[in-house]
């Protein structure tokens, strides 16, 4: 991944040589462009490497999407949320996760479907998407201390964090169970949806797949951080609150790896990785990212409201309903447009509420 390393070096070299103020608009624009380049290059390498691993070890692509790809592309959320929690910026930490999951479900799935319709397997529709709905409901309950416990403020404390981590352990157990099923060959737990596209996946040597995955993840992580730095700098110059920054710019920036990876996977005729990436990232964000953040330090919810949390639950329900009742478990381009429109409406309402 020498290209990504060179771009990263060039960006930081420009930052030192231009002698611009910390919040200079030119520097922020450079960070945005550099971050996008790293994200796109990383997504391409990660998708190729992950698909090759899936084919080599006969692991379903949905499992690769739920684990390696999802965890890797969620690394920016983990970094940003934990760092924000340690710095006392709970609104950014929580808003990042809530906003990222809404962005993942509505914008990423929607944009990916606009590029190529997404076929959802029966197992994903019956198990993985309901798990996303469950994770959103769990967060809604944990974040409503005022309503449920008559508390003075809503807090995600260490008990809530440990509870979320327990749910994450259950999710990991389920993922490995479907990766290595114990049922007879005639009773597969996952639809063999990838067999018809097997010839379209390029089989790489193991060392090259490893380099692609590690290099792709590194480019995605660094690219996401660089993009967020630029976007946050612009937002702060405009006087936008931390909760809005977390729900929109930071959330969208840290979700760019998922967007790039899902679109590239769809273009390369591997939609299982695309949908698995979104579902896995959403579960990872709530159960692991918020679980770790709240366990490290309690998170006080100030700017994050029940409106945002209900939108989070509703976005997962909308995805499930579209896959369940329309177009035979396929997210079509029309349905993708509906998801994108729903995200635009949510963003407009969010900005107008300021």
Automatic annotation (TrEMBL):
It comes from Bacteroides faecichinchillae. The keyword Methyltransferase does not apply. It is found in: Membrane. It comes from the Bacteria. Pfam families: Na_Ca_ex. The lineage of its organism: Bacteria, Pseudomonadati, Bacteroidota, Bacteroidia, Bacteroidales. Keywords: Membrane, Transmembrane, Transmembrane helix. It is a multi-pass membrane protein. This is Cation:H+ antiporter. The keyword Membrane applies. GO terms for biological process: intracellular calcium ion homeostasis. The chain crosses the membrane at residues 26-47, 59-78, 98-119, 131-149, 161-180, 211-232, 279-301, 307-327, 334-351.
């Amino acid at each position: 991944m020498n290209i990504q390393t060179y771009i990263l070096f060039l960006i930081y070299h420009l930052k030192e040589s231009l002698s611009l103020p910390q919040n200079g608009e030119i520097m922020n624009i450079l960070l945005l462009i550099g971050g996008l380049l790293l994200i796109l290059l990383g997504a391409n390498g990660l998708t190729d490497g992950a698909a090759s691993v899936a084919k080599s070890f006969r692991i379903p692509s949905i499992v690769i999407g739920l684990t390696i790809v999802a965890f890797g592309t969620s690394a920016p959320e983990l970094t940003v949320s934990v760092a924000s929690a340690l710095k006392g910026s709970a609104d950014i930490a929580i808003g990042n996760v809530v906003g990222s999951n809404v962005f993942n479900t509505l914008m990423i799935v929607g944009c990916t479907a606009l590029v190529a319709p997404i076929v959802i397997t029966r197992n994903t529709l019956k198990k993985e998407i309901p798990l996303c709905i469950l994770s959103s409901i769990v967060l809604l309950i944990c974040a409503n201390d005022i309503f449920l416990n008559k508390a003075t403020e809503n807090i995600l404390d260490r008990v809530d964090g440990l509870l979320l981590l327990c749910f994450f352990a259950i999710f990991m157990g389920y993922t490995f169970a479907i990766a290595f099923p114990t049922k007879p060959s005639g009773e597969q737990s996952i639809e063999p949806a990838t067999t018809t596209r097997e010839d379209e996946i390029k089989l790489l040597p193991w060392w090259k797949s490893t380099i692609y995955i590690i290099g792709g993840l590194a480019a995605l992580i660094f690219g996401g951080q660089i993009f967020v730095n630029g976007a946050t700098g612009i937002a702060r110059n405009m006087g936008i609150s931390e909760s809005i920054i977390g729900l929109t710019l930071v959330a969208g920036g840290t979700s760019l790896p998922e967007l790039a990876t899902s679109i590239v996977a769809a273009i390369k005729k591997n939609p299982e990785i695309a949908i698995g990436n979104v579902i896995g990232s959403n579960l990872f964000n709530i159960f692991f990212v918020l679980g770790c953040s709240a366990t490290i330090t309690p998170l006080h919810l100030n700017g994050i409201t029940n409106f945002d949390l209900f939108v989070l639950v509703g976005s997962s329900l909308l995805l499930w309903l579209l896959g369940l009742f329309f177009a035979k478990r396929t997210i079509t381009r029309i349905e993708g447009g509906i998801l994108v429109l729903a995200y635009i409406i949510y963003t407009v309402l969010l900005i107008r509420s300021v």
